[in-house]
């Protein structure tokens, strides 16, 4: 229908979607000026030929909906805008509550002969398996996305028996790490099933990314064109994004390290943006020497030794890190006097810190939660290691003091009015001794508590829950101050910024949200993951946030503008732990596949893989100076890895940054410094104290 077409073209022009407009114009064979002219003469002469007489399109309807599908990709998934504001687009397609669904699915209208699908696929399979070794590994990446799309195409066009036999014949050939996805796929056997299935829709809307060398790609293209294998070629063009690089094809081992996420690998473009991974300059203030420091065996010598050391701490932080973000790039809270005192304490502790290394491993102190019948679901420990919090499946949050100092609440208002506010020990006087206890229980959530986080100043505590809320608790009064409602589904993780004030949460709704404690609406919403956001972490400079997801990718987001600046693929299962190195340059990630992957943030590359755990890794922590990485897992072990060695041999210039190739050492055993078993306690949390003692926590499981 010509008028509809013109209306759509004008809409696209108004919305500045030039690319989509061009595509539509090419497909419809309309020239630029015709759009205006045709609008003037409603009875436009038949300028519009048959819309492409190839196997691809069945009539204008498919064409239009394919253009909307293309537009969805151009806008980055907000297809709703195009589809809903021009009703003509959805001609002949049932518009559902998600307007993009029908547009996306109707891309499957391109009918091939259903009986030939198995022949097409096995023909390609035969070709790939007989190609040279160097190309075979790269081209084998095509098997999985083609298998899924061909199966869905058969189901969508209601060839159910052909779809079933296609699935049964070829699903065994797919890589083992796609098993879970294939299980979901096997349950989609009718066209109706496809409408509400999110995983399926994501597979449709986001193009599956493959990284292939130019030689391998040419080989594939030549084969498909010789064979006149239009069905497969169409899928390759419609639904796959092939990131072609010049140079040697990658080996099976290099490819296996990087693939496995829901949408294939990351495009190389996705990891090119500049990231300020350096640390912010520490504020300068004098460190007073305490009396206790001056006592000691050699009374004259000790302070003298201490002083130059203190100065060096000061001077080290005066130099601006060249990779650091500008100091005022995002507004950070002012330092209060209490924060300064805490920093002084921190420096004193740091002076007594143990230098760790392969020769000097940390002691590990394990906090076992016994009789935790409520079901321990989250743990956090304060930076100064004075308090530990547990989130439980019975919706309670329990805070313990792990020092002899008991937890006390502030006195009631009536009692506070009697206190002399000028006295030196006013902070002591406001605490109510009658409330002193080792444990405080906080009630308020109405579902299991999946994440907890102490604020850096130890005044507040965050908890997030299955009930969809994040709660902020006061550790002065042990009451709930705010409930942040933004997620509609369970919230899996939350974490305070290292500077306080900001915090991040991630949940089942597939987005992460950035909040400030004094705003009840989120400041930023980070959308892009294709499945639950399972864990969240702030970068040490607070300008970036890392999120791990069940779509098996890790993303790094810029707090300033909400952009995704890094996408890391390589894990074969949902990601459950993240840790930044103290210098801000590296990120470690752990997942259900039992592997710890190491990433260079600046170059956007995987630089290491630590194998050893046999179950999900729930906890990762770098020691205070970054020499050691500790990992804790459901396999009841804590493992220590040599982080210095893992990162030291990086030749980043010829690091084939262009192709994103990586050569991982065959075994990571020489990086493993120690494995420590618990009796039967999965490790849920790890924490290095300021002096580099490693604290671990988990709940004893009797089975």
Automatic annotation (TrEMBL):
<feature type="repeat" description="WD">
    <location>
        <begin position="568"/>
        <end position="601"/>
    </location>
</feature>
<dbReference type="InterPro" id="IPR015943">
    <property type="entry name" value="WD40/YVTN_repeat-like_dom_sf"/>
</dbReference>
<keyword id="KW-0805">Transcription regulation</keyword>
<dbReference type="InterPro" id="IPR037264">
    <property type="entry name" value="TFIID_NTD2_sf"/>
</dbReference>
<keyword id="KW-0677">Repeat</keyword>
<feature type="repeat" description="WD">
    <location>
        <begin position="369"/>
        <end position="410"/>
    </location>
</feature>
<feature type="repeat" description="WD">
    <location>
        <begin position="526"/>
        <end position="567"/>
    </location>
</feature>
<feature type="repeat" description="WD">
    <location>
        <begin position="442"/>
        <end position="477"/>
    </location>
</feature>
<dbReference type="InterPro" id="IPR019775">
    <property type="entry name" value="WD40_repeat_CS"/>
</dbReference>
<dbReference type="Pfam" id="PF00400">
    <property type="entry name" value="WD40"/>
</dbReference>
<protein>
    <recommendedName>
        <fullName>Transcription initiation factor TFIID subunit 5</fullName>
    </recommendedName>
</protein>
<dbReference type="InterPro" id="IPR007582">
    <property type="entry name" value="TFIID_NTD2"/>
</dbReference>
<feature type="compositionally biased region" description="Acidic residues">
    <location>
        <begin position="287"/>
        <end position="298"/>
    </location>
</feature>
<feature type="compositionally biased region" description="Basic and acidic residues">
    <location>
        <begin position="310"/>
        <end position="321"/>
    </location>
</feature>
<dbReference type="GO" id="GO:0006367">
    <property type="term" value="P:transcription initiation at RNA polymerase II promoter"/>
</dbReference>
<feature type="region of interest" description="Disordered">
    <location>
        <begin position="287"/>
        <end position="339"/>
    </location>
</feature>
<comment type="similarity">
    <text>Belongs to the WD repeat TAF5 family.</text>
</comment>
<comment type="function">
    <text>The TFIID basal transcription factor complex plays a major role in the initiation of RNA polymerase II (Pol II)-dependent transcription. TFIID recognizes and binds promoters with or without a TATA box via its subunit TBP, a TATA-box-binding protein, and promotes assembly of the pre-initiation complex (PIC). The TFIID complex consists of TBP and TBP-associated factors (TAFs), including TAF1, TAF2, TAF3, TAF4, TAF5, TAF6, TAF7, TAF8, TAF9, TAF10, TAF11, TAF12 and TAF13. The TFIID complex structure can be divided into 3 modules TFIID-A, TFIID-B, and TFIID-C.</text>
</comment>
<feature type="repeat" description="WD">
    <location>
        <begin position="610"/>
        <end position="642"/>
    </location>
</feature>
<keyword id="KW-0539">Nucleus</keyword>
<dbReference type="GO" id="GO:0005669">
    <property type="term" value="C:transcription factor TFIID complex"/>
</dbReference>
<comment type="subunit">
    <text>Homodimer. Component of the TFIID basal transcription factor complex, composed of TATA-box-binding protein TBP, and a number of TBP-associated factors (TAFs), including TAF1, TAF2, TAF3, TAF4, TAF5, TAF6, TAF7, TAF8, TAF9, TAF10, TAF11, TAF12 and TAF13. The TFIID complex structure can be divided into 3 modules TFIID-A, TFIID-B, and TFIID-C. TAF5 forms the TFIID-A module together with TAF3 and TBP, and in TFIID-B with TAF8. Component of the TFTC-HAT complex, at least composed of TAF5L, TAF6L, TADA3L, SUPT3H/SPT3, TAF2, TAF4, TAF5, GCN5L2/GCN5, TAF10 and TRRAP.</text>
</comment>
<keyword id="KW-0853">WD repeat</keyword>
<dbReference type="Pfam" id="PF04494">
    <property type="entry name" value="TFIID_NTD2"/>
</dbReference>
<dbReference type="InterPro" id="IPR001680">
    <property type="entry name" value="WD40_rpt"/>
</dbReference>
<keyword id="KW-0804">Transcription</keyword>
<dbReference type="InterPro" id="IPR036322">
    <property type="entry name" value="WD40_repeat_dom_sf"/>
</dbReference>
<feature type="domain" description="TFIID subunit TAF5 NTD2">
    <location>
        <begin position="112"/>
        <end position="240"/>
    </location>
</feature>
<dbReference type="InterPro" id="IPR006594">
    <property type="entry name" value="LisH"/>
</dbReference>
<feature type="repeat" description="WD">
    <location>
        <begin position="484"/>
        <end position="515"/>
    </location>
</feature>
<dbReference type="GO" id="GO:0016251">
    <property type="term" value="F:RNA polymerase II general transcription initiation factor activity"/>
</dbReference>
<dbReference type="InterPro" id="IPR020472">
    <property type="entry name" value="WD40_PAC1"/>
</dbReference>
């Amino acid at each position: 229908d010509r008028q509809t077409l013109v209306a759509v073209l004008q809409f696209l022009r108004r919305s500045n979607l030039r690319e989509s407009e061009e595509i539509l114009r090419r497909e419809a064979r309309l020239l630029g000026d015709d759009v205006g002219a045709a609008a003037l003469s409603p009875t436009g002469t038949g300028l519009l030929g048959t819309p492409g007489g190839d196997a691809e399109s069945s009539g204008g309807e498919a064409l239009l909906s394919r253009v909307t599908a293309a537009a969805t990709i151009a806008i980055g998934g907000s297809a709703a805008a195009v589809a809903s504001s021009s009703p003509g687009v959805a001609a002949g397609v049932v518009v559902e509550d998600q307007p993009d669904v029908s547009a996306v699915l109707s891309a499957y209208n391109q009918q091939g002969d259903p009986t030939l699908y198995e022949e097409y696929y096995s023909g390609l399979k035969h070709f790939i398996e007989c190609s040279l070794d160097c190309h075979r590994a790269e081209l084998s990446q095509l098997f999985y996305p083609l298998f899924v799309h061909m199966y869905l195409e058969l189901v969508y066009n209601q060839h159910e028996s052909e779809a079933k036999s296609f699935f049964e014949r070829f699903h065994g050939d797919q890589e083992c790490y796609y098993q879970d996805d294939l299980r979901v796929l096997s349950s989609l056997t009718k066209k109706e099933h496809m409408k509400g299935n999110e995983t399926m829709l994501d597979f449709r809307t986001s193009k599956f990314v493959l990284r292939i060398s130019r030689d391998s790609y040419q080989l594939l293209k030549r084969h498909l064109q010789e064979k006149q294998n239009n069905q497969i070629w169409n899928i390759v063009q419609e639904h796959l994004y092939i990131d072609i690089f010049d140079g040697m094809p990658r080996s099976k081992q290099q490819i296996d390290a990087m693939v496995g996420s829901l949408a294939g690998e990351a495009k190389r473009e996705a990891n090119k943006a500049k990231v300020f991974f350096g640390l912010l300059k520490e504020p300068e203030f004098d460190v007073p020497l305490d009396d206790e420091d001056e006592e000691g065996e050699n009374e004259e010598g000790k302070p003298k030794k201490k002083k130059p050391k203190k100065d060096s701490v000061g001077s080290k932080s005066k130099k601006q890190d060249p990779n650091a973000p500008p100091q005022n790039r995002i507004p950070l809270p002012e330092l209060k006097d209490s924060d300064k005192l805490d920093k002084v304490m921190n420096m004193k502790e740091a002076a007594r810190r143990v230098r760790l290394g392969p020769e000097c491993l940390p002691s590990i102190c394990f906090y076992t939660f016994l009789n935790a019948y409520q079901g321990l679901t989250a743990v956090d420990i304060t930076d100064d290691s004075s308090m530990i919090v547990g989130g439980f499946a019975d919706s309670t949050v329990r805070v313990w003091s792990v020092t002899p100092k008991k937890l006390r609440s502030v006195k009631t208002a009536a009692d506070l009015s009697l206190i002399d506010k000028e006295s030196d020990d006013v902070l002591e006087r406001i605490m109510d001794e009658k409330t002193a206890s080792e444990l405080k229980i906080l009630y308020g959530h109405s579902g299991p508590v999946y994440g907890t986080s102490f604020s850096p100043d130890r005044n507040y505590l965050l908890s997030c829950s299955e009930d969809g809320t994040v709660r902020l608790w006061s550790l002065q009064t042990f009451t709930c101050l705010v409930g942040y409602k933004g997620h509609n589904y369970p919230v899996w993780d939350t974490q305070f910024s290292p500077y306080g004030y900001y915090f991040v949460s991630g949940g089942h709704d597939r987005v992460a949200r950035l909040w400030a404690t004094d705003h009840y609406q989120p400041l930023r919403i980070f959308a892009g993951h294709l499945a639950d956001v399972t864990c969240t972490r702030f970068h040490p400079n607070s300008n970036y946030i890392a999120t791990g997801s069940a779509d098996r990718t890790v993303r790094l987001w810029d707090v300033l503008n909400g952009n995704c600046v890094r996408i890391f693929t390589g894990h074969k299962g949902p990601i459950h732990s993240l840790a930044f190195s103290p210098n801000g340059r590296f990120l470690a990630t752990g997942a259900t596949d039992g592997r710890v992957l190491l990433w260079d943030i600046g170059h956007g590359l995987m630089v290491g893989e630590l194998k050893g755990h046999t179950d999900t890794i729930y906890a990762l922590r770098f020691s205070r100076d970054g020499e050691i990485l500790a990992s804790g897992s459901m396999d009841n072990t804590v493992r220590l890895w040599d982080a210095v060695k893992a990162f030291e041999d990086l030749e980043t210039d010829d690091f084939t940054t262009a192709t994103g190739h990586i050569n991982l050492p065959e075994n990571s055993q020489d990086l493993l410094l120690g494995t420590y078993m618990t009796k039967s306690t999965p490790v849920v949390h790890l924490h290095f104290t300021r002096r580099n003692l490693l604290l671990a926590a988990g709940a004893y499981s009797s089975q």
